[in-house]
Amino acid sequence: MIVLRSLLISLAVCAVLSRVTAATLPAGFTETQISGLSNPSAMAIAPDGRIFVCLQGGNLRVIKNGGLLPTPFVTVTVDPNGERGLLGIAFDPNFATNNFLYVYYTVPGSPPHNRVSRFTANGDVAVAGSELPILDLENLSASNHNGGAIHFGPDGKLYVATGENAVQSNAQTLSNRLGKILRINSDGTPPTDNPFYNTATGVNRSIWALGLRNPFTFAFQPGTTRMFINDVGANSQEEINDGIAGSNYGWANCEGACSPPNANFRDPLFQYGHGFSSMTGCAIAGGAFYNPTTVQFPASYVGKYFFADLCSGWIRLMDPSNNTASGFASGIANPVDLQVASDGSLYYLARGSSSVFRVQFTGPGGTAPSITTHPANQTVAQGAPATFNVVASGSTPFSYQWQRNQVNISGATSSSYTISSAGMSDNGAKFRCVVTNAFGSATSNEATLTVQPPPILLTEQDSDSAIALASPGEFRDPFPLVDPFNLSSDNRTRVMFFAINLDLLPAEDHTAVTARAEDASLNIYPLTVEFVGGVPNFAGVTQVILILPSNLPLGQSVLVSVTVHGQTSNKARMRIQ
Fold it and tell me: What's phi and psi for 423, nearest 5 deg?
């Protein structure tokens, strides 16, 4: 559906479909609501704790001491069509002394364009006439893919996210600033250390990274230089990208990780597909690292990255140490932005409910995981799949990390782990799972994988002739053999073959093994397996007693093979007198 490809256009549709109810949060978490915000698009928390909320129609509203102030901080004249409007806000690093803040909005006109302007605060309102435009972008054609997020980085520079305005080629050129991350000084000029300063010309020297479709939100991790860029996808994938100077993120050559890999493009750290489930969506919208001045949430949240999806209405949690994600909140009416306050609260902006919500941890309210079902040892044939499962009790949601020989397995982050085709290199490997929630973690017992190679019928050296004994009698220790005459009561000839790698599971008997013979004309003769057991005093050697059918051709050789657990042995030659 085309409507799901465009962020703010889809907001109106999704808002109708969403339930305006409280979010479902993990145990120990609560939320409070501040409503009255019509068509919100972005927010930022001032150093003094006030929350400034951008409304698409042009009002910049202020939440102070938990209440929405009646008077807007400022109202800018915008083009609010489609995804245009007032879309981003950032506070100057020296806001406490200079009172400067910056906004990103769409200037109306024929054609319109996006602009970054600086305003000066006087308490809870802007100084009249204080607007200073510092950045005017290229003229717009389409009403979607405007980007709009702006944040100051740890280097004191202002970073600006721009969409490619639904013109895919914009993302891959240095001749305009659309589909990019820009880096500018606070006066709008490009820093001379920008990665393309000596390659691009004029205003395009502000380009810091390219190859983006619609980076509606991004975030810096406090105390570090790390930056994550959320790029809204087109047909299949939503992306979280590692913000690194000079990077090309591949749009429109790739959506999600490039396939086949392309060294010219930087693949996302994390991506998720389109759909309406707890792990899929249609538009990534909002991102915030949990590194507050005061840690309020359980310690397991520190350093993690919250991100949200507009259509599926959830907030998930990404672990940058292994680029995996787990659930956090659901049932949200169209989240568009996330912020973490210095007191450790998480704020989310829900367009579908015209509100800001504050999430706090009140605890204890929950319990750490406890493993109730440990993964079990597995014995499988070579080439067969092997699956390990774990079940835990405790407060949900859980995150899972499987380990092989106590080393994390990349991407193995669900309650089960499957090896699609076990090889001999997997034989003896030990698997366990670490289950984590907000209150702690638990590690399962190790389960051992045993991989059985195909059975081998023993043959004479440098020959395919079977090592076999004819007409064995009863099968009692110590391995009695009788003379080569058929002494059986049914007058059917029996042959004893010897095999290795033919090990039955504890609950199995001879019925787990099948056998057949093949003559020179490729005719197949099923053979009855009468007994399978170990050879006393010969570790690893198995005796297989076969009853020969009466219709085997006489005076020629046949090739005999056995099958167990889906694996067939070699063919051993036996001559019928």
Answer: -110, 175
Domains of the chain: 2-361 (2.120.10.30), 370-452 (2.60.40.10), 456-576 (2.60.40.10)
**Which amino acid type is present at position 476?**
R
Between CA 549 and CA 563 the distance in angstroms is 18
8-state DSSP, 199 = T
Residue 482 carries which side chain, given as an amino acid letter? Answer: V
Name residue 532's amino acid. V
| Dist CA 573 CA 390 (whole Å) | 47
Residue given tokens 């030990």 in the structure block? 430
Per-residue pLDDT of the chain (577 residues; tens, 9 = 90+): 233 344 443 443 343 333 445 799 998 899 999 999 999 999 999 999 999 999 999 999 999 999 999 999 999 999 999 999 999 999 999 999 999 999 999 999 999 999 999 999 999 999 999 999 999 999 999 999 999 999 999 999 999 999 999 999 999 999 999 999 999 999 999 999 999 999 999 999 999 999 999 999 999 999 999 999 999 999 999 999 999 999 999 999 999 999 999 999 999 999 999 999 999 999 999 999 999 999 999 988 999 999 999 999 999 999 999 999 999 999 999 999 999 999 999 999 999 999 999 999 987 767 889 999 999 999 888 888 999 999 999 888 888 999 999 999 999 999 999 999 999 999 999 999 999 988 888 999 999 999 988 999 998 888 888 887 765 544 333 334 333 333 345 667 888 999 999 988 888 899 999 999 999 999 999 999 999 999 888 888 999 999 988 888 888 889 999 999 888 999 999 887 6
Q: Write out the two tokens for 356.
A: 């800001």
Classify 215 as helix, strand or coil. coil
Q: How far is residue 170's CA from residue 184's CA, in Å, rounded to a whole number? A: 19
Residue 134 falls in which region: left (phi positive, over 0), alpha (psi -120 to 50) or beta: alpha
Can you state the percent helix, strand and coil of the chain, rounding each to 5? Answer: 5, 40, 50
Between CA 117 and CA 122 the distance in angstroms is 16
Please indicate, yes or no, whether the overall pTM of this predicted structure exceeds 0.85: no
User: Helices marked H in 164-270 — which ranges?
Assistant: none
Q: Are 149 and 336 in contact (CB under 8 A)?
A: no
- Whether cis (ω within 30° of 0) applies to the bond prior to 478 is yes
Helix (H) or strand (E) holding 68: strand 67-68
Residue 258 burial (CB count, 10 A): 17
